[in-house]
Amino acid sequence: MSLDLAIRHLVGQFDLDMHVRLGSGLTALVGPSGSGKTTVLNVVAGILRPQHASIKFDDDTLADTDAGLWVPSHRRRIGYVFQEPRLLPHLTIRQNLMYGRWFHRHRQGGLPFDEITTLLNLSQILHRYPSKLSGGEKQRVALGRALLAHPRLLLLDEPLAAVDQTHRAEILPYLDRLRRDHSIPAIYVTHTWAEVSSRADHVVELENGKVKALSEL
Amino acid sequence: MSSELEIVWLSLKVASVATLASAIPAIGVAWLLARKRFFGRAGLNVIVHLPLVVPPVVTGYFLLIVFGRRGFVGAWLDQYLGFQFSFRWTGAALAAAVSAFPLIVRAIQLGIEHVDRHFEEVASTLGARPIWVFLTVTLPLALPGIIAGLVIGFAKALGEFGATITFVSNIPGETQTLALGIFTALDRPGGEAVAMRLAAFSVAISVIAILASEMFARSLKRRDA
After folding, report:
1. Which CATH architecture has domain B2-224?
2. Counting one residue from A and one from B, how many pairs have CB atoms under 8 Å apart?
3. Mind listing the domains of chain A with CATH numbers?
4. Which of A50, A98, B3, B198 would disulfide-bridge A9, Cβ 3.0–4.6 Å?
């Protein structure tokens, strides 16, 4: 897989200007807070429409704003795990997990529901509502929900930021297993190196909205 | 006594029909006002809120001009569909609906503005088209505001007086609702007892409506807490 990104977005003093080509595997997007990491993910996901963007996923053009093309987020098939879990509070865990799957119900294949719930250790809490879950549990549900919606790319925005240390250790192995067993490419935003240094295939360093360094590991 | 029960029944019918018929248009308008920026938004806002600020008699008078038998909409409805508002309970329901509409819209608009847009975003990334985002995320999360709007709208519809009497007059068994019934009873020598009973009915109905919505709101809170 390849993801070609060209984004230009000016808001006040902040000037995001990046061109980058990402390959398969896990790409770590690192940089200090305010460097534009989340903005990049929002643009890729289709939530934020910047002044200029050209996004190409393999042969599929997701955005070419100069030509007036902007594929809306619901047609991009890009899974997004936000910093906060954002579980839909009026739905049970099972309904949350099935939410995206339902919109892709005519699609063949995809990750099996039972396998994901087992892998993420969610089988015991399927009937509960999000308000009854711990931070670590919620973030595991958010990850499972994104995976079950037939994503061709996964965006992870500091998914462990809101999770305490003990629960981090609980989630990271799941991420490793997912990467090993299912080859869904992912972009992982973080400002803590340790989280990704041993896991990433590529690293993009962002500073003040510009790509500072690009490296293969 | 039977005529009093008739008044209560008619009032419940008028207020329920007015509230339920307002629900979907009110949700649509509230969503537009809460979420969309478009040309004519300010104008829509003013028109919706007009019945709240003009004297009810003026609302009734406008309804008469538009929906009366000689009104341009009323005449058309009568001629082509054989449907009449004037001097019918349906007209009382229309007057009640128009008067209650701004209150319903306001409460629902607040409810929708309260919905965290992050939830709508996540639904969208999971593949939900905008209409599905609205139906499966925005609407259920705005439910407390919608219920509050319908309850306050029902109460307003139940108490509507000025627009109703101007538009469809005060006809026992057809347009004489609780407020009009009380007014009529007080006008009659020795009618105080009837007026008191009708007043008690309207208080009881309002209390039941408020309690029911409270119970509903509490059951929602239990789930989300």
Report:
1. Orthogonal Bundle (1.10)
2. 70
3. 3-216 (3.40.50.300)
4. A50
